[in-house]
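check this:
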Amino acid sequence: EMPGSFDIVTAIMVACGSQHYAIPQRNIMELIWVTPSPGMGSSQDEFRFLRLREQRYPWVRLSTLLHINIDQELSRRREIVIMMQVGDDAFGLSVERVFDAEEIVVRPQPPILRKSAMFTGNAILGNGAVAMVLYPAEIAAELGHRRQMASVAHAPALGDQG
């Protein structure tokens, strides 16, 4: 994915707040419905864990990653979690709504938006709306970073017993 070049990809269109986003289909393993339960962490947590077929996966809300306030009622109902794979990393991304898969032309980010590594570009949809294209590798890196920070915060200080 060279900056400055156009790319045609198949992407799943999702919504967070009033904005639409595109997630490249090549990174998506499956979509699942999850009913939040104790042990997953609260909806306010930076990330939670999801047990799926005897594996534990980090799981985060798109709204949390993008610092978008959404209706808190959403945290009490089933959530749509998109399970993604980037290299050896697998994780879940919770979104408010999922739409169809579409072939989109991904345009490079304009310079003003390049500082946000969460996006690899944008696409103009058939209805004229602009959808930001999420960059799953950056989301995986961010989750890894947050997990590291959380484990450091909960690690006993040197010299602590127990």
Residues 62 and 95 are 6 Å apart (CA to CA). Strands lie at 7-16, 19-24, 28-34, 48-52, 55-61, 79-86, 89-95, 97-106, 119-124, 130-134. The mean pLDDT is 79.
